[in-house]
Amino acid sequence: MTDFMPDFKGATVAPSPNHGERLGVSGPDIILLHYTGMTTADGALSWLRNPESQVSSHYFVFEDGRVIQLVPEDRRAWHAGKSTWGGESDINSRSIGIEIANQGHPGGLPEFPEKQIAAVVELCRDCGERWCIAPERVLGHSDVAPIRKVDPGEKFPWDILSQNGIGHWVAPAPIAGGRFFQRGDQGQPVEALQSMLSIYGYGIEITGAYCEQTEGAVAAFQRHFRPTLVDGIADFSTIDTLHRLIASLPRFSGV
């Protein structure tokens, strides 16, 4: 492991050997957020630096806001695994990976401390400005790997990040009654839902059948954008929130 100068001035360097060349890109255009999902922060950091683990991230954020850089940003860290977004499958080559110390679902999904989130905001802002990363490409691991991954989880405060200029967000529509779609449904409305999820970036086939893949993509969307109820059922709240997110994208809003 070789020391290097941190790309983010607020970071302390603790090198990981687990990285390689970015493939087919000039630099990252996604910021990908994770929770560690391990009992202790120190144990998680040690695992990301262990050559036997074959995993790493560019950054690690402790609960108290300390930021560690493990891999230079011009290198390909190994954090996303099998994942897709916007039709691209090598998310590791396209992204800056940030691991946030939190026990996650295995540990009861603890709240993220204010100091930690403030540090994540500062780090994301710095990376985003230096690499010109679009707000809608600040994502969670569950967005690029639905079903397989659920981090950073429904308690991650995406709304607070948005209030600080990080990420893409609209206020989620209130949960109410009305028509909904779920596993086993078929037809044009399901096809339209799948098309909207695909337009936003989720890796989903447009088949018109509400299958496991569709349910997983809907749950991933809810976990990020409508976190009060994550059930994989496309109710009015879910569909309306998705529609407004798409409408506010620069390529559709004329911005």
Please, could you describe this protein's structure?
- The structure is a single chain.
- The protein has 255 residues and is of the alpha/beta class.
- The protein has helices at 41-48, 91-94, 114-131, 141-144, 158-163, 188-200, 212-225, 236-247, 250-253; strands at 11-13, 19-21, 30-35, 59-61, 67-69, 75-77, 95-100, 138-140.
- It has a six-stranded mixed beta sheet.
- β4 and β5 (67-69) form a beta hairpin.
- α6 (188-200) crosses α8 (236-247).
- The longest helix has 18 residues, at 114-131.
- The protein is globular.
Keywords summarizing the entry:
single chain, 255 residues, alpha/beta, six-stranded mixed sheet, 9 helices
In helices, the fraction of residues equals 25-40%
Tell me how many strands there are.
8
How many alpha or pi helices? Answer: 9
Quote the distance from N terminus to C terminus: 44 Å
Low-confidence stretches: none
Write down the secondary-structure element order: EEEHEEEHEHEHHHHHH
Radius of gyration (CA) equals: 18 Å
Shape: globular
Structural class comes to: alpha/beta
Mean pLDDT across residues: 96
Tell me the strand percentage band. Answer: 5-15%
Please outline the major beta sheet: 6 strands, mixed
* Biggest sheet strand line-up: 1-5-4-7-3-8
